[in-house]
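SAMPLE LOG
Freezer: B-3
Tube label: C17
Construct: single chain, 59 aa
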Amino acid sequence: MSGGMAREKLNGTGSYVWGFSIDRETHYMIKELSQKLGLKNESAVVRLAVRKLYMDIKA
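STRUCTURE (predicted):
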């Protein structure tokens, strides 16, 4: 993938590595949600949020 925001991991897991910037308020929201959900992995919060938004839009 050239010029895109994501690149596939080299280990062939089907996972992608993303690089982007977020504002301080969004960062705080992710940290707070992570704590309230008991998740130590903040990227899991982002994945859950994207999936929820996707399902809400598709419905």
